[in-house]
UniProtKB/TrEMBL annotation:
Domain Rieske: 51-130
Protein name as annotated: Rieske 2Fe-2S domain-containing protein
Keywords of the record: 2Fe-2S, Iron, Iron-sulfur, Metal-binding, Oxidoreductase
Species of the source: Bradyrhizobium rifense
InterPro entries: Rieske_2Fe-2S, Rieske_2Fe-2S_sf, Ring_hydroxy_dOase_asu_C_dom, Rng_hydr_dOase-A
Stated family: Belongs to the bacterial ring-hydroxylating dioxygenase alpha subunit family.
Length: 453
């Protein structure tokens, strides 16, 4: 069946054909709508990239575990008795049954397969097999199963953010992220103790669209004043009508009001791009710049970092940082959104809120409110984006034009794989993402073809 599929495939593992889907300032519609391209992403793009798995605070005690998916691969992360964190493929080496099916939990001192009760230490090593004498003299000790749970060998925990790369070969963590890690640094440094904590489950919901549409939208600054006019725009008008003599702007209005900022605001705010598809909006200014001060917070930060450093940390108010391939970090309000591909036209969104350890509760309250007001499908503005994604997924089936245009403020082909600060309404960060897409999609295709032959 697989041979038939490959023979009939439109793209197969043809690196040239895949790369041709991305031009300097255009992207072919198949990148969004072709099921074969999606399957190739699962097989190549995600294993070749460094992908977010979870946060170390979710593994606070020995035996704690979380589950995640990298492409099509289910993975399991756990905290071992010595405090180390390990990431495994989430399948028993015996018959392939998933070891853990829950999003998180505590397994105690070992994992136990629910099918035949093979058990494994929390570092993945094989602990026990029922009726083990039945394997004596069978050569079992020389098999992969005797090694326990298969480990993901490339794992980095950076400021408690857990990243993994499934491919044994590829770009190192440091080279992959480079200076872009400054957004994670800033988010963690906003805690007087330099620590973040996940203490609640995320908002989870499904979008009927390709995952890359959500990633692009994070640095699309030409849509808020248009797509959100009927929602945030109406809410702002109602507030102005009803505020009367009030001089205090409610937190909710502070959160959704800036979405109605004009093009000039976003132009001047700027976008910073980094190599390998990473970048962020809000360089000089952002929609998070003018929130009300929280009593006592600045004093805590000054005590922790000194006055100069405290003002540097809090003065960095980046809007959305895209970490290629599929997460967005919003440091100023401590939110991470994970866009998990399910099918070519189906994406699961997880929107996580982090607590600033040691900071006033009001900051966590504001982050939770932002998540519900802006990111949830029932929010003030989130459903507007969902409507646009679904329309785009349908519209791209049209044969009238097979290319998506990303030419706004395009200058030259030399804009690839560089660090730069640009006009805040440029589509260059989207182009940056798709150049990275082509790079990580194709980097191992020749090797796979040689192996198949």
């Amino acid at each position: 069946m697989r041979e038939t599929r490959d023979t009939m495939a439109k793209y197969g593992r043809n690196a040239h054909a895949i790369a041709a889907l991305v031009r300097e300032a255009e992207v072919h519609r198949d990148v969004y709508v072709d099921p074969e391209v999606f399957e190739l992403e699962m097989e190549h793009l995600f294993p070749n990239s460094w992908v977010y798995v979870g946060h170390a605070s979710q593994l606070s005690k020995p035996g704690d575990f979380i589950t995640a998916t990298i492409g099509r691969q289910p993975v399991l992360a756990s905290r071992h008795s010595d405090g180390s964190i390990h990431v495994f493929y989430n399948r028993c080496p015996h018959k392939g049954v998933k070891i853990a099916s829950e999003p998180c939990g505590n397994t105690g001192k070992f994992f136990r397969c629910p099918y035949h009760a093979w058990s494994f230490k929390t570092d993945g090593s094989l602990l026990a097999i029922p009726l083990k004498k039945g394997y004596e003299g069978t050569g079992f000790t020389d098999t992969q199963a005797n090694g326990g749970l298969s480990k993901v060998r490339n794992v980095v925990v950076y400021r408690d953010f857990i990243f993994a790369r499934l491919s044994d070969d590829g770009v190192s963590f440091e080279d992959y992220f480079g200076e872009s890690l400054s957004t994670i640094d800033n988010m963690a440094d906003r805690s007087p103790e330099g620590k973040l904590a996940v203490i609640a489950t995320p908002i989870r919901y499904m979008h009927t669209c390709n995952w890359k549409m959500l990633v692009e939208n994070q640095t699309d600054t030409c849509h808020p004043m248009v797509a959100h006019e009927s929602s945030a725009g109406t809410a702002v008008k109602v507030w102005k009508r009803e505020q009367g003599d009030s001089t205090e702007t409610p937190m909710a209005v502070q959160l959704y009001g800036p979405f109605m900022s004009p093009y000039e605001f976003y132009e001047q705010s700027g976008i910073r791009i980094w190599p390998n598809g990473h970048g962020h909006t809000g360089v000089a200014n952002s929609i998070h710049s003018n929130y009300s001060d929280v009593t006592g917070y600045l004093d805590q930060m000054v005590a922790a970092y000194g006055e100069t450093r405290a003002h540097e940390i809090l003065g960095e108010v980046r809007h959305n940082t895209v970490y290629f391939p599929n997460i967005m970090v919003k440091g100023a309000v401590q939110i991470l959104r994970n866009f998990i591909p399910i099918a070519v036209d189906k994406t699961l969104v997880e929107s996580w809120v982090y607590r600033l350890v040691g900071a006033p509760d009001k900051l966590y309250e504001r982050a939770l409110m932002y998540n519900r007001f802006i990111n949830a499908p029932t929010s003030i503005v989130g459903h507007d984006d969902l409507e646009m994604y679904e329309r785009a997924q349908e519209g791209l089936k049209s044969n009238g034009n097979q290319w998506v245009n990303l030419r706004r403020l395009y200058e030259s082909s030399e804009e690839q794989d560089v660090t730069a600060v640009i006009n805040g309404t440029s589509e260059r960060q989207m182009r940056n993402q798709f150049h990275a897409w082509a790079k990580f999609m194709t980097m191992d295709m020749d090797k796979h073809v040689e192996a198949a032959e």
